[in-house]
Amino acid sequence: xxxxxxxxxxxxxxxxxxxxxxxxxxxxxxxxxxxxxxxxxxxxxxxxxxxxxxxxxxxxxxxxxxxxxxxxxxxxxxxxxxxxxxxxxxxxxxxxxxxxxxxxxxxxxxxxxxxxxxxxxxxxxxxxxxxxxxxxxxxxxxxxxxxxxxxxxxxxxxxxxxxxxxxxxxxxxxxxxxxxxxxxxxxxxxxxxxxxxxxxxxxxxxxxxxxxxxxxxxxxxxxxxxxxxxxxxxxxxxxxxxxxxxxxxxxxxxxxxxxxxxxxxxxxxxxxxxxxxxxxxxxxxxxxxxxxxxxxxxxxxxxxxxxxxxxxxxxxxxxxxxxxxxxxxxxxxxxxxxxxxxxxxxxxxxxxxxxxxxxxxxxxxxxxxxxxxxxxxxxxxxxxxxxxxxxxxxxxxxxxxxxxxxxxxxxxxxxxxxxxxxxxxxxxxxxxxxxxxxxxxxxxxxxxxxxxxxxxxxxxxxxxxxxxxxxxxxxxxxxxxxxxxxxxxxxxxxxxxxxxxxxxxxxxxxxxxxxxxxxxxxxxxxxxxxxxxxxxxxxxxxxxxxxxxxxxxxxxxxxxxxxxxxxxxxxxxxxxxxxxxxxxxxxxxxxxxxxxxxx
Amino acid sequence: xxxxxxxxxxxxxxxxxxxxxxxxxxxxxxxxxxxxxxxxxxxxxxxxxxxxxxxxxxxxxxxxxxxxxxxxxxxxxxxxxxxxxxxxxxxxxxxxxxxxxxxxxxxxxxxxxxxxxxxxxxxxxxxxxxxxxxxxxxxxxxxxxxxxxxxxxxxxxxxxxxxxxxxxxxxxxxxxxxxxxxxxxxxxxxxxxxxxxxxxxxxxxxxxxxxxxxxxxxxxxxxxxxxxxxxxxxxxxxxxxxxxxxxxxxxxxxxxxxxxxxxxxxxxxxxxxxxxxxxxxxxxxxxxxxxxxxxxxxxxxxxxxxxxxxxxxxxxxxxxxxxxxxxxxxxxxxxxxxxxxxxxxxxxxxxxxxxxxxxxxxxxxxxxxxxxxxxxxxxxxxxxxxxxxxxxxxxxxxxxxxxxxxxxx
Lengths: 599, 409
Hints:
The structure holds two protein chains of two kinds. Chain A is built from 13 helices and 33 strands. By secondary structure, chain A is α+β, with helices and mostly antiparallel strands. Helices cover 41% and strands 21% of the residues of chain B. The longest helix of chain B is centred in the middle third of the chain and has 18 residues, at 244-261. Chain B is globular and about 60 Å long. Classes of the chains: A alpha+beta, B alpha/beta.
């Protein structure tokens, strides 16, 4: 056990976590050069493209240290985004130490700080790494200062590297062995293994990734999930060396995989504790928290004919994404679709990107919403995320909305603009802390609903790209929430209805009206577009009627050509969504809903 | 309609062979039995207009004579046609480019080989540059009932833009000559919606037309087709079509000026001083009545099937050389297709749609099927309801295509 190190890498997006992981893997010879793809751990297209890690993964590396001893280094990759903070937590729980990567040109960012706090919560030993020292804009000394002041870590431990160029990689490996502690655990104690991840494999069913804390796990064991109570037979255990490598057993301190007979990922509770059915541990490992969706949106296929394809795609996605919850939904305007719950905005983005790319679907997404707690006059309490189910205003006693604690890091000179932005988004700033050299951390409490739309974008704009943002869920607080209906030609368009804070309702409704005015083609009559709270009209715009079409001649008897033109025109119209007697092209929904998010 | 299809005896199975069965009979229009129309396409012009996408070419005298002989051969191949014709329409192209002798031979052949009623109306399209006293007298002698003169504009600048060979003064003289000749119906064609046509120049052309006193006016909106000179100019960005709102305003102006002069619209582009001056021939197209088309590219229809001749004169002639009808293709119209056409015509004519008749023919109650949309159109004045008829208003005619596309079957 003394020769084992379980560690992860903490970094802000783009600071080079995946590249560093690749170099460590290469340096330990786990991958041959010719089979090496950059960023081995990120095996989803979107992860590669965006340079972020969504699903965690792990790999066991053999490293002969300078003292001549062979060590097993288990690198547990963590998702780099706060939406997946519960996954981050689980990964951190499997480790004793972490590398904290900071970009030598960017310095410490909000996400670095947030993840660092998480790591400290889990008593991890931390080793700072300054990456990208090969870049001309690298300022290693300044970053050392930030590591000292912003992160509170010893700047003299920091290892300067260039993951891209392969500089300093040996020092990092050596640092892992010397700075990070080996696991502690009782091999003789009853089995306790943390399930920190799971993947669906088309041939083997669900593959669990586990960290054995106490005891020993071997094939043939009968195991029990302590939270769900389900029991299974262990078919195979082993180490992840990019490919699975079967072994006889996993001892306390080990990180590896387990295959039981589990068929669907829904049957697995990530974060659960595995123990032996015959000699169970007394209590599960602490910190188990099921993932809960906080952002909701309905997904519709652009063409209702694609509903079947969407349905299949959702099922396939859900095989590997236990956090994705969905149920059938239908809209008068957009037909059948799915109401989905996401861990956050990034999760939503990832899901829709995967549906588009991997399944080649064209989609319309309704405006994202948070989950409101509604206290009814009759004493009942309901949780509502879908405007379609919003009660009549008369039936509502009070409403609460979810709040977050936001942390914004930015250069001092942009503070004024950022504070203004916070005020616009109903944020109560708690305090401003000076970090190194003109950088500030603003912490604020604000409604989650306020960051669903354009907050990230605006922050980037007002800070000229230097601001970063992170958040964690806080609690529920009273709010004045209204349902805004969008009416086209006096007809409610269900897919465009949204829930909003009363103060924000008018501005958003005006945005909708303006966008629809732009994207709905003129029709035969004047079309009013209105935003309304109940009977009260709060925004409006008008589409003037279409007054002349090019009536090609219809003489000499060539009626066929004319009819075919008309048939084509009718086909084009079949792709429109009919609301009352107004035709709305799908693109109108897309443009309204996309520009609103503005991301 | 006769019980026997006109093309049933054709040697070419593609040409309108049909065995009437009950459902097709049900889709016949209530006006069936009025008589068929005969169309003869003369594909020659003295010059090709830059907006024209009809089958036309510039033919010298020997080619024209050869073509007349082709037509005579084609006429003879349709001896089995039984439906009596009550209209004979010489169109093009420019049929007035043919000499009186040639036109006479054509009409004689038509009368001797085909069932043309004695009271059939003869229509002739003519260009102002072909109008001369002798020619006009000859047309009268040939029995031309309706003379349709392709004036297009009374503005010299617009005429040049349209590539026409006559000027405004000549056009006026030609109209006067024809009016004086005493045709039953004297019609003239105008084009509107030229890229920079002002309301004033259009009004001036209309005023001139009104003052000349024709019986019938056709006023077509300039349509830029791909494959024409205008189409290529548009593709290069050298021709920009008139914006839709201005087109609409010009269209309204036409109705206004012509109505004041006593011409009532009866179709999107057609105005007549009295119902009897309406184009009996063109109305056959719009009412799904049978018609036979002769000459290159001409289309025919027998109530259920439509077929069309070769567009190129070479292919057309080659078929005749083989003693075959020069039919290039045909289609049997499904009930849905017939319904769509009926809907399209209904929206283009002031007669509109007879809802009961439509339901009888196609089993669709247009008003009930489109209750919401029709309601909105009635409210906004695009459609009017008169008994069982659903009729487009003037504003409705302006968007006839879109109305037809929107109404569901």
